[in-house]
Amino acid sequence: MQLVIKSATQDNLEDILSLYYKFFKELRSRQGLSPRGIDEYREEVREFLQRDQIFVAFLEEKPVGFIHISKREGAHWLEELYVVPDYRGMGIGRKLVEKAENYIKKRDSAAYIMVLPQDKAAIEFWIHIGYKVLNTIELAKDLNSIQEEDTRVFEVFGYPFYIWRWRKEGYDEVERKYLETLEKFYKLGGTRRLYLEIVTAALRKWINRQ
Ligand SMILES: CC(C)(COP(=O)(O)OP(=O)(O)OC[C@H]1O[C@@H](n2cnc3c(N)ncnc32)[C@H](O)[C@@H]1OP(=O)(O)O)[C@@H](O)C(=O)NCCC(=O)NCCS
Fold first, then answer.
1. Would the N or C end of the chain have less CB density within 10 A of its end CB?
2. Alpha carbon of 120 to ligand 1 centroid (Å)
3. Mean of the per-residue pLDDT values for the chain?
4. Of all protein residues, whose CA lies closest to atom 16 belonging to ligand 1?
């Protein structure tokens, strides 16, 4: 089957809208939320087709994926990447990213992406194709109180790092055990310094056994 990747124009509005809607529907379902109606995304898509760069993948003329690149805050961002589920695992995602990277390379020295920490599959995909976790930590003060059961706690440099609990999380056994242990650690009053001391000691023990 022949794969063709094209730069999108306003003529591709309905194709991109359909893919963009599927992207949000899938993401929202994993979060336990519903997407807006498809027509509510039309204006957004029209605007980014005017302003940004979008590449669409066609397999035998059927639109099967897209990547959206924007320029903001002085950097090039990969905003969304999506491949229709039936066509995953065929190298289309990688080809779309390569196309975007070639586009960015002519204009800039790096491609950035923002991924939600719950999106384990996406993070693993980006790391697999050569991306590194870099730079940004978002801080927020919730002015209403958050229900404890709505969040999970990770850690960043020993700081408790709260993320929304998604309906479909996909953690394996080791990851789940780690998250449960971490939650207990902070609940029992474990501090950042103590976390760093414990982890350092455990890692040193492992290193010394090698
Ligand atoms: C992420 C996504 C775009 C991947 O598309 P795809 O066409 O299936 O990916 P490819 O077939 O090109 O895979 C490229 C490589 O990544 C690997 N890969 C794909 N998904 C992976 C994952 N979740 N974790 C680790 N590796 C992954 C493939 O095995 C392949 O490896 P190889 O080239 O070394 O053999 C697709 O799964 C998707 O649309 N997901 C939903 C939306 C999403 O999460 N988008 C990204 C965040 S914005």
1. C
2. 11
3. 93
4. 125
- Give the per-residue pLDDT at 78: 96
Pairwise CA distance, residues 79 & 13, whole Å: 17
Tokens linked to 201:
């000691």
Q: Which fold has domain 3-128?
A: Aminopeptidase (3.40.630)
- Nearest C-alpha to atom 42 of ligand 1 is from which residue? 82
What are 86-108's pLDDT values in tens digits? 999 999 999 999 999 999 999 99
pLDDT for 2 beyond 80: yes
Domain with CATH 3.40.630.30 in the chain: 3-128
Query: Cα 154 to the chain's mean position, in Å?
Result: 16
Query: Does the global pTM surpass 0.90?
Result: no
